[in-house]
Design a protein that fits this description.
The protein is of the alpha+beta class and 469 residues long. Helices cover 17% and strands 40% of the residues. The protein has three domains: 357 residues, YVTN repeat-like/Quinoprotein amine dehydrogenase (Methylamine Dehydrogenase, Chain H); 47 residues; 42 residues.
Length: 469
């Protein structure tokens, strides 16, 4: 299934230090880059990307109304697919074909080898938002409040799924062999299922034979932005603009759990075995136990929305609006690598053969080396992070010792003062001097509070600048 995404406004976040660029003792370390190639042919921002199953080609769709087929052996553009009259919103490589959906309300089927359009699919009344090709069927969703099913061979319309009250975006197809294995209440339900999510805050499951709605999943208070199912095909997971994820019984529509913890919209999610990974516009990614809705890890360090997320071989890869991609250890939550080089928001990522592919609204596709990434990790994160952590620990120990000495001095002084008071030998002059010192301490504390307040204000201004850009 290919990555899809609607047109996005340009976003540029504040820069932060990349791997090999942290400063220590005022000296700049030698920069280490993991960038292998930058592929740039598009004349406008890339919205979506899809890789072939064999990893030989990758296709990008952009605001310049074109899609480009890239040969990953030569890292050159194989074909530029021209024909759409609107920006490309979604894309998928399936077998020897590429399917593109566009704001021009149409879907096109292209031959990977020749670059020619073989089928034009027309019928939607508004921009196409997502598409899925299964081989037997082609599914599309649109802002026209419908989803449609087509014959991918000739573009014939097979079904129209009507019922949503607002635009339809995420799509998910569950074949009969994967669906409802343990919860079949009626044999008529044991068929292929299409599930759609909508800005009307509901998800719906549809009968592939009749086009009728099986179940409406109600409970969210905001648009449903992403969908996934557990490996058994019996549990539906929906991510919403209401800051929550919900789990449902696909067969009955029963709501199981509400996953609370994010503070903004859920933009992407992926289920791996019994765990779910989510990315949000609250600048965090999280890991959850799907059965209990418990958050086990929060992946920090992002400075903008997380638009895309992938989990593979114990690593969490994120593409962010702050122009950077990041790689985390899924289990510990440690940040292993920060990949910096894009000029605008990252809209799609793909992983294959030890390489990370990132597409951006700056119009470029970048290829990064992630082959040795597991060797970079320590108990704290990457090697530079570990060294910094050790320095911090030393500083903490030093501060603790100073605080302890200070307390001992203070206790000694307090004891002497107490004896003096009891013997009534302290003079008025000493009392005045003591009051003067106390006032100086208060003044020093006020200065410290003012410094901290100024620092917090500067940080807040910086964060607001990132959000506003």
């Amino acid at each position: 299934m290919g990555s899809g995404g609607s047109k996005r406004a340009r976003s540029a976040g504040s820069e932060q230090s990349d791997d090999g660029r942290e400063r220590k003792n005022g000296k700049k370390k030698k920069e280490k880059t993991y960038l292998l190639h930058t592929l740039k042919e598009h004349t406008d921002g890339i919205n979506c990307m899809s890789m072939s199953e064999d990893g030989k080609v990758i296709v990008t769709g952009a605001d310049d109304n074109t899609a480009i087929i890239w040969d990953l052996k030569t890292n050159e553009a194989k074909h530029v697919l021209k024909g759409h009259t609107g920006y490309i919103t979604c894309i998928q490589v399936f077998a020897e074909y590429v399917y593109t959906g566009s704001s021009d309300k149409k879907v096109r089927k292209w031959n990977i080898d020749t670059g020619k359009c073989e089928v034009l699919v027309e019928g939607h009344a508004a921009p196409v938002t997502r598409l899925i090709c299964t081989g037997d069927f082609l599914f599309t969703s649109s802002y026209d409040r419908t989803a449609m099913c087509w014959d991918p061979d000739d573009g014939e319309l097979l079904h129209i799924f009507r019922g949503h009250k607002r635009g339809v975006t995420p799509l998910m197809y569950i074949p009969a062999e994967d669906a409802l294995k343990d919860d079949v209440l009626d044999m008529d339900y044991n068929k292929d299922i299409l599930i759609t999510g909508s800005a009307d805050a509901t998800a719906k499951s549809w009968n592939m034979d009749s086009g009728n709605c099986f179940i409406t999943f109600k409970g969210h208070k905001g648009a449903i932005l992403c969908l996934a199912a557990d490996p058994t095909g019996t549990i539906l997971l929906t991510g919403s603009a209401d800051c929550t994820i919900r789990s449902w019984n696909i067969a009955t529509g029963e709501s199981f759990k509400v996953f609370e913890g994010h503070k903004a919209s859920i933009l992407c999610l992926q289920v791996t075995n019994k765990l779910m990974y989510t990315g949000s516009s609250d600048q965090t990614a999280k890991c959850w136990v799907t059965e209990f809705a418990d958050c086990t890890r929060t992946y920090l360090g992002h400075r903008h929305s997380i638009n895309t997320l992938k989990v593979q071989e114990g690593l969490v890869y994120t593409g962010c609006g702050d122009k950077m991609a990041r790689v985390y250890d899924a289990k510990s939550g440690a940040l292993k690598r920060t990949l910096k080089g894009h000029e605008f928001v990252i809209t799609a990522i793909a992983i294959n053969g030890g390489k990370l592919y990132t597409a951006s609204y700056d119009g470029s596709l970048k290829i990064w080396d992630c082959s040795d990434i597991k060797d970079d990790i320590t108990s704290f994160g990457n090697k530079e992070d570990a060294e910094d952590e050790k320095e911090k620990e030393k500083e903490k120990e030093k501060n603790k010792k100073n605080e302890k000495d200070s307390k001992m001095d203070t206790n000694g002084n307090n004891e002497l003062e107490s004896i003096k008071e009891k013997n009534e030998t302290e003079s008025t002059e000493k009392l005045q001097e003591s009051e003067k010192k106390d006032n100086e301490k208060v003044f020093d504390n006020k200065e410290l509070d003012e410094d901290i307040t100024k620092e917090i204000e500067e940080i807040n201004k910086e964060m607001e600048a990132v959000k506003d850009v």
